[in-house]
Amino acid sequence: MAPVARSCSCRVVNPRVVIVRPFCVTGILRLASPWSIVVPTRPAARIACRRVTPGRAWDAARRGSTGRYGCCVSSTPRCPSCRRFVYLDTLVCPDCTTEMGLEVIERRFVGIRDGRAVVDGVTWYTCSERRWGCNWLVREDAPAGRCFSCRLTRTRPPADDTIALEKLATTEEAKRRLLLQLGDLGLPIVPWDVWPGGLGFDLLSSRSEGRRVIIGHANGIITIDLAESLDDVREALRVRLGEPYRTVLGHLRHESGHYFQNVLIRDDTAWAQCRDLFGDERASYQDALTRHYETGAPAGWQDSFISEYATMHPWEDFAETFAHYLHIVGTLKTAAAIGMRLDASATRRDVDVVPEDHYDDQPIGRVLSDWEALSQGFNRINRSMGLADLYPFTISPPVRRKLAFVHELVTRAPLTTDEQVALALAPRERADD
Ligand SMILES: [Zn+2]
Ligand SMILES: [Zn+2]
Ligand SMILES: [Zn+2]
Known about the structure:
Layout: E1 11-14, E2 17-20, E3 37-40, H1 54-64, E4 100-103, E5 108-111, E6 116-119, E7 122-126, E8 137-139, H2 148-151, E9 153-155, H3 162-184, E10 200-204, H4 206-209, E11 216-218, E12 221-225, H5 231-241, H6 248-264, H7 268-278, H8 285-295, H9 314-338, H10 344-347, H11 364-384, H12 397-411, H13 417-424
Parallel strand pairs: 9-10, 10-12
Antiparallel strand pairs: 1-2, 2-3, 4-5, 6-7, 7-8, 11-12
Helix pairs in contact: 3-6, 6-9, 7-12, 9-11, 9-12
Bound molecules: zinc ion (3 copies).
Residues 79, 81-82, 84, 93, 95-96, 98 line the site of one zinc ion.
Organism: Microbacterium dextranolyticum
Pfam family, one: Zn_ribbon_DZR_6
Protein name: Zinc-ribbon domain-containing protein
């Protein structure tokens, strides 16, 4: 790692944030450019001019973070005109017909006129994928007409495949929800077109491709089969595989777990802890796959794993646990936004159960205690409507320890809003520059 040259124009924004070009070799920096990248670092360390990777951004954050939380969708999303509640995918208010878009930095809905909105002196435009349901806005200085979420989609169905594009719209909606949650948690997202291991999505339809599309993750790229947005396809698979829960959002959370395992675990100590809990991920994946589909999960798997699939290989155990962590804290956050509160007399506890917007300063015990009460309540509500349980899983003591490990990784040092925005707005440069 080369030290910073004196001539380097990397800019110190505050004691722990420096703006530096992502692939800076000479130290030349476009200081005023909004496409410079922000890397959190220690006050005295400045930063070496080096490639920015998700892991390195995370390392730097861990060293220097004050732990301040990034931006959150902390309150109920509302129509900017009539203030009624709206869902995150709303394009037009059902009450007052105001056209709206989501300004993703402050996480607020704003009214749209002629495809644009001015927020605090900055013009935001509707995403070029709005006709396919994307309601995110694009800042005036963005390099393309696609929003951050749509930009992360590396591969998509061709423009004339309208059937597949309709399925893409459903999947993109789940993807935006995932990205908002990752942002709320302060997790680093370096786009695939900034760094070769960065996060990206190949969204393909097995129906259109005429071949099987395998859902998975490889080197930052998450592949999703758009056919799974069809209820009959997904439900048939769920039944055939004997799974209690199968959703597109669940796939996205699981696959993002593969991505973040390599991003968040950065040293030998953490890897040793991880192997202690999940097993050695260096074991043959192919052998594990063959074994899993020949013999299934071992008897008594519920005592140690969150799902049958988690038994397949340590990679899958971590990804499943990570997905469940996102299920749990995401749903608790929604419960907090709704204003839910379980009275102590109803739960037979000493105190009311009050879900939190975030749990970054709380032990995993508090998270799981709240979740135990809330998920039981949600399951009862679902059953009263004749539906399957909302959360059809049992969290055993070993799974609690795995979730504690993920909680520690995620909450160690969340990136601030500025840091996340800068990573998101990093320039598109050739990875091999
Ligand atoms: Zn309205
Ligand atoms: Zn978009
Ligand atoms: Zn997996």
